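Here is an idea for our session: we take a single protein and study its fold together. Once you have written the record down, we can walk along the chain together.
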Amino acid sequence: MRGTRRTMTVTTLLAVAGALPAAALDVPEPPESGNVADLADVLTDEEEQQVAERIDAGNESTENARVAVLTVPSLEGEELEDYSRRVATEWGVGESGKDNGVLVLQAAEEREVRIEVADGAREHVSDDEAEQVVDVMTGRFGDEDVAGGYTEGVDDLYALARDENPYAMSTGEKVAAWVGGALASLALGLLAFFGVRSARRAAANEAKEKELTQQLIAEARAQDPELPEPDEEELEAFHRYRKEHQGQPLPGGVPLTYAAWLPLYAAAPTQYGAVDPASTTTSTTSFGGGGGFTGGGASGSY
């Protein structure tokens, strides 16, 4: 009798365990910078940067949408729509009170895509329009053009948010746009090739300039041991001022040295190399505590 009870208990426990839902897939942390988290590594670093820049430009062009992108290797059995809504909500995609967030989520293993649209953004990007964007993206993904799918999809989302219709072009206009895009891609490729070489030269020159700045500081402190070692902000300010003035004397004809510059900087930081806070650009982040993700959007596969 005891054996029967034990068998029934084990059987019951197994049945209950089998009836329990699978553990929910963890929501990752939002990206530390930018608005793209490519956890599935479907984009190169350069492609990810291009998508992030498209989002930054879109955020500057309209307040009607704030787009963020997440790719995951697998959903691990979780439903795409449930997971995307949970990510969008926990990340706070969009601005608080405007609920203008839009999350683009790709599950690489399942080959699925979801565009989750918050209630505020839904006034400009309807479910049918989100489905059109999904169709564009999955078409590109199916052709192994993941980067193109994201850049076109992001551009279309922001066009819709600005109440423009990217799908209203005639066949001739679409052909012209495709040809123009192809030529632009070729030109960008050539510019990128030469740009990389130029960037490398610029980086090497900047390293030499920074070395000279540090050498001048070291010489000044060797002559006057009581001179304090600069903190990071002071170092960058002196480096910036020295580069901009290229050896020109300080006010009153005083030679530009670290010792002579330091008290002037302490009295008027922005005049002597510090960055003026008022001149910095505003953030284009898509994470502002938004919500209102009640099921708007569309899904597709490729």
